[in-house]
Each structure stands twice: as structure tokens, then as C-alpha cells.
Write a structure and sequence with these properties.
heterodimer; A: about 230 residues; mainly alpha; MetI-like fold; 8 helices; B: mainly alpha; about 75% helix
């Protein structure tokens, strides 16, 4: 059997941190993505401009650079704000940036941009007649969104969401670089201390493979369910 | 110019000629690393993709496992396994390979090549599978053998379908290459990290490098758009130049 030299529990805890990080970032990304997609499709020019600038910006910069900027920059910004508030108003405010929060915020922001594009495409794929029908029934804008657009959009968004989730899962490994004790970090420390890189990295790689393969199956199942009533042409 | 910008420029101690040179060296190693990985990865991916479409499971199976594993695990782990792992292979330190692989550049290059080869293989496979059957039948009717069919019909037509997905992979690779800085390579991100720790100025150091990456990304997007226009010229509506 695999002998993890006493690092087993630490690796397991690291795996849980990875999964938590992935799910929290996903939640943030979905939230940002919905807001982004609705602003991109809105008639408001300012909202459209901001959303376009956001997605272009995010897609031009590497994840790691973004993460380093938020982690190191975020702390400096908080320190400055803290000094400023104390000098001006004698308000005691301090906040320690930790790698976990920086990781969630960065990954959420990055994938929020990808989700924006996915949702935008999916909203456009909803038939116009559906919206017209809703209007004819006297649905309000919000009502149309909640009852007609959102449920139908989800079906079109699912394949894109699945892809984004797979990439997101693998991006969580980067947070170990800014010091989060996820499974990659634990494996790295163990590999260095025991001088056995294969021994610790291969189980972690297998764990990621398990997570991605498992989500692939789950997404396939969801897709089948979501498309249950659709007759495929051909 | 607004006052705060002039003020900032006047007391700027960070962006001197010295640090500019550091960014430049970082840019050179990023471009080298990404370019070499992409070229070698593409050269590997074409035969792998052809093997992956083979009906013989002993040919397509191993390629499937390779792409599945490399696409299902983070590049960072692949880099760590290769970077830390190569030194642990028994006896390697006595061979000439050690002279190559003790530099961090080559393990990183190997990891990037394998990773991009896996993704590119799947892109090309998708494009090959989508070849209209009529094209292949026509080629057969002309008496072309398998090799000629591949070279004259299937691959050129697959290249047209693959170029858009491949441009995404190229940009993805440029962005992924930032992790080379983790194994002590001074690429663009590595240079930014050095400058950050010297001046404790995260915004200046990282925003500058983000802008450089963005410029590179847009350059790539522009070049690929040109290439796409060139390759898909025949699909443009008649009359438009």
C-alpha cells in the first residue's frame, strides 16, 4: 500500500482545502458571470463598457500574475487604508489578507469573466419568441428573466460551464504558490523533505484526475437531464 | 497631465533602466519558452492526433491515456513532477542528460511541451474527425493512398478547422508559462516578483508585467485573426475583398 510517511492526514486536509477553494470560487464566478452577462446584453452603454473592459482585461493577463497582484497588492492596499483611516479619523481598521481569500477572489474574478462569455452566449441562444410570448403574457422584465430566460439559458450554458469548472479546478493548484496549504503545497513540502517527488506528487495528480473525471461524469449526467425534452435533429 | 501622475513620474525610483532590462530579459525567456514549447508541442501533436483517430485501440488507447492524464491534472503538478523528479532518477546525474536538465529551463520546457502537446492533440483530433466524408471518398476515388490523403486532403482541411481553437491554446500557454517563475526561472513573472520584493511595490511591479502580457496576448490575437482570414478566405462571401 502507499506509504505517505505520516503526511497522509495533512494531504487529506489539503485536498479538502482545494475542494472548498474550488467551490467558493465557482460560486463567486457564477455570480459575477450572471451580472457580467446581463450587463453585456443590457441597453445601458456604461454597463456594457464596464463588462467588456472587465472581460478583455482578465483574458489578457495570466492567472498567476493576477493572483500575485491581489495577494501582495491587496495587503499593501489594506495597510495604506488602515494608516489613512487612523491618521484622519482615528478609526482602528485592519484586515490580514490570507492566501485563501485572495485565492477565492482571484479565481472568482478570472472565471467570472469566462462565465460572463458563457452566459452571454447562452442568453442569446434562447429563442426570441419565448421572450415575446412572455411579454404578451404581461410578464415584467424581472419575471421574464427568472421564469423564462434563466431556466432556458442554463441548458445552453451547461457545456461551457462544465469546461470552465474543469479549468477552474486545475487553476486552484496555483494558490499553493502564494502559500495556501492545499494538497499541492503539502505534497511539495513532503517531496522536498523526503526527497521523494514522485511519491507525493503522483497521488496528488491522481486526486486531481479523480476530481476532473468525476465532474466530467456529473456534467454529462446533468446535460442529459437538462436536454431530456429536446429532440435532436439529424 | 493630472498632477498625481506627474508627481508619481517624478519620484519614480522603480522603473529605471536597470529594472527595464530585467523585464526585457524576462520577456525574452518567456517568449523563448512559450515559442519552443508550442513548436515542439505542435510537431508532436500531429502524429499523436493521427494515432488518436486510429480504429486500432492499441494505437489510439495510449494516446488517449496521455491526453487524458495531461489534460486532467494541473500544469503546476506536471512541472513539479518533472522538475523535482528528474534529479531523482537513479544514475541520471552521471549522464550528459544531467548537464541539460539541471538548468530549470529544460524541465520547464519539457513539462510545457507535454502539456501543450496533449491539448493540441485533442484539438487536431476534433478537426480530423470532423472532415466531411465526401472529401475522403473523393480522394479515394482519385486513387490517393492513405499517406497522400492525409497530407493533401485531411490535414490541410483539419488545419482550417483547428486554427481557432489552437489560437486559444496558444494564449492559454502564454498565460500558463507564468508558473515557470516558481521553479526559479526569471521569466516575465519572475522578473516582476524580483522587482516586487526589492521595492516592496506590488502594484508597480505586477501591473507593469500584466500590461506586457496583455500586449503579447493582443498581438497573438491579431496575428491569429490574420491567419484565420488567410486560411478561411474561400469561405468569405463573394464580392468582399
Amino acid at each position: 500500500m502507499l506509504d505517505l510517511k505520516g503526511y497522509g492526514p495533512a494531504l487529506f486536509e489539503g485536498a479538502i482545502v482545494t475542494v472548498e477553494l474550488a467551490f467558493l470560487s465557482l460560486a463567486l464566478a457564477l455570480f459575477i458571470g450572471l451580472i457580467g452577462a446581463t450587463s453585456k446584453l443590457s441597453n445601458n452603454r456604461v454597463a456594457r463598457g464596464i463588462a467588456t473592459a472587465y472581460t478583455t482585461l482578465i483574458r489578457g493577463v495570466p492567472d498567476l500574475v493576477m493572483m500575485l497582484l491581489f495577494y501582495y497588492g491587496g495587503q499593501v492596499a489594506v495597510n495604506n487604508l488602515s494608516d489613512f483611516l487612523w491618521d484622519k479619523y482615528e478609526i482602528d481598521f485592519f484586515f490580514q489578507f490570507n492566501p485563501f481569500i485572495s485565492g477565492v477572489v482571484t479565481i472568482g474574478l478570472i472565471f467570472g469573466a469566462y462565465m460572463t462569455e458563457t452566459f452571454r452566449g447562452a442568453f442569446l441562444a434562447v429563442e426570441k419568441g419565448q421572450i415575446e410570448a412572455a411579454k404578451a403574457y404581461g410578464f415584467s422584465n424581472w419575471h421574464t428573466f427568472r421564469r423564462i430566460m434563466f431556466p432556458q439559458m442554463l441548458r445552453h450554458a451547461l457545456p461551457g460551464l462544465g469546461n470552465n469548472w474543469q479549468v477552474l479546478l486545475k487553476t486552484t493548484a496555483l494558490v499553493s504558490i502564494i502559500g495556501l496549504t492545499d494538497m499541492v503545497r503539502v505534497a511539495e513540502e513532503a517531496a522536498k523533505a523526503e526527497r521523494m517527488p514522485f511519491h507525493f506528487f503522483i497521488p496528488v495528480a491522481a486526486m486531481y484526475l479523480l476530481l476532473t473525471a468525476g465532474s466530467e461524469l456529473f456534467i454529462k449526467w446533468l446535460d442529459k437531464r437538462a436536454n431530456a425534452g429536446v429532440v435532436k435533429g439529424g | 497631465m493630472p498632477e498625481f501622475i506627474t508627481e508619481w513620474l517624478n519620484q519614480n525610483e522603480i522603473f529605471t533602466a536597470m529594472t527595464m532590462m530585467e523585464y526585457w530579459d524576462g520577456l525574452v525567456s518567456t517568449v523563448q519558452l512559450v515559442f519552443l514549447s508550442l513548436v515542439i508541442g505542435l510537431v508532436l501533436a500531429i502524429p499523436l492526433a493521427i494515432m488518436r483517430t486510429s480504429k486500432n485501440h492499441f494505437v489510439s488507447g495510449p494516446v488517449w491515456i496521455f491526453t487524458y492524464v495531461f489534460r486532467g491534472t494541473p500544469l503546476l503538478i506536471q512541472l513539479y513532477i518533472i522538475y523535482y523528479g528528474i534529479a531523482q532518477i537513479p544514475g541520471i546525474q552521471d549522464t550528459f542528460w544531467w548537464d541539460i536538465f539541471k538548468e530549470p529551463f529544460y524541465p520547464a520546457l519539457l513539462a510545457f511541451v507535454l502539456n501543450t502537446a496533449a491539448y493540441t492533440t485533442e484539438i487536431i483530433r476534433g478537426a480530423i474527425v470532423a472532415t466531411p466524408n465526401g472529401e475522403i471518398e473523393a480522394a479515394k476515388a482519385y486513387g490517393m493512398n492513405w499517406f497522400m490523403r492525409m497530407r493533401r486532403i485531411i490535414l490541410p482541411s483539419a488545419a482550417r478547422r483547428a486554427v481557432q481553437a489552437y489560437s486559444n491554446e496558444v494564449i492559454f500557454m502564454l498565460h500558463s508559462s507564468a508558473i515557470a517563475s516558481v521553479v526559479t526561472i526569471v521569466d516575465l513573472t519572475g522578473a516582476a516578483r524580483n522587482i516586487y520584493s526589492r521595492f516592496y511595490a506590488p502594484f508597480d511591479a505586477f501591473i507593469a508585467v500584466a500590461l506586457i502580457y496583455m500586449a503579447l496576448t493582443f498581438l497573438l490575437v491579431f496575428l491569429f485573426r490574420k491567419l484565420e482570414n488567410h486560411l478561411l478566405r474561400h469561405q468569405r462571401p463573394a464580392g468582399s475583398s
